[in-house]
């Protein structure tokens, strides 16, 4: 299994009606040096200014980003080039990040290289400490700044700490 942490920024709450703005991915391994950044142009005229503002991107900038199909194809190639075994998507907020990745992959490529599921980092931590309400974000080695690559790296750093604490992940 190869673990990837993905973080998505979007201009609204759901894919299809709104658009993904950008995403970052990092392969989980010591050094966290293999990263991918995707920036995709809007697929809809609908957008929420307050949602777009989180990504620190203007609508004008967003309109100049890459074609979604080309960006998703490049991301899939990067996953294939860096994977050993099955790629597994991990995320801070799996319900949000996975829905965007799944929708964009299936809409533009007809498939999702991560398959049908993913893992939420916070749930792994809660299970490890046997507390369903345990807080884990203090384990991030860097601040959460809404740059998707930075956020993915910080969350991947947490995952590496969980492995150090005894979580058994067969990272290849």
Describe this structure in words.
The chain is α/β, with parallel strands linked by helices and 172 residues long. The chain has a single domain (2-164), classed as 2-Layer Sandwich (Nucleotidyltransferase, domain 5). Helix content is 40%, strand content 17%. It contains six helices and five strands; from the N terminus they run E-E-E-H-H-H-E-H-E-H-H. The protein has a five-stranded mixed β-sheet with strand order 3-2-1-4-5. The longest helix has 17 residues, at 148-164. The model has no long low-confidence stretch (mean pLDDT 95).
Q: Give the helix level as a range of percent.
A: 25-40%
- The fraction of residues assigned to DSSP E strands is 15-25%
Tell me how many strands there are.
5
- State the order of secondary-structure elements, H for helix, E for strand: EEEHHHEHEHH
N-to-C terminal Cα separation, in Å?
Answer: 6 Å
CATH topology: Nucleotidyltransferase, domain 5
Report the CATH superfamily. Ribonuclease H-like superfamily/Ribonuclease H
CATH architecture call: 2-Layer Sandwich
Task: List the total number of helices.
Answer: 6
Output the radius of gyration.
16 Å
Mean pLDDT across the residues is 95
List the quaternary state of the chains: single chain
Number of structurally distinct domains? 1
Q: Which class of secondary structure composition applies to the elements?
A: alpha/beta
Class in CATH?
A: Alpha Beta
In this structure, how is the largest beta sheet organized? Answer: 5 strands, mixed
Protein traits:
Nucleotidyltransferase, domain 5; nucleic acid binding; globular; Exonuclease; 172 residues
């Amino acid at each position: 299994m190869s673990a990837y942490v993905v973080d998505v920024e979007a201009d609204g709450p759901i894919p299809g009606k709104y658009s993904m703005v950008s995403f970052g991915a990092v392969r989980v391994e010591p050094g966290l040096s293999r990263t991918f950044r995707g920036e995709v142009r809007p697929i809809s005229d609908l957008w929420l200014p307050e949602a777009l503002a989180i990504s620190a991107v203007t609508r004008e900038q967003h309109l100049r980003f890459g074609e979604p199909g080309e960006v998703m194809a490049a991301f899939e190639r990067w996953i294939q080039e860096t994977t050993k075994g099955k790629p597994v998507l991990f995320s801070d907020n799996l319900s949000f990040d996975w829905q965007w990745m799944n929708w964009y992959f299936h809409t533009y490529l007809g498939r999702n290289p991560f398959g049908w599921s993913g893992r939420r980092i916070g749930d792994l931590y809660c299970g490890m400490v046997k507390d369903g309400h345990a807080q884990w974000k203090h384990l991030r080695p860097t601040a959460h700044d809404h740059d998707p690559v930075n956020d993915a790296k910080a969350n991947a750093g947490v995952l590496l700490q969980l492995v150090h604490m005894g979580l058994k992940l067969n990272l290849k």
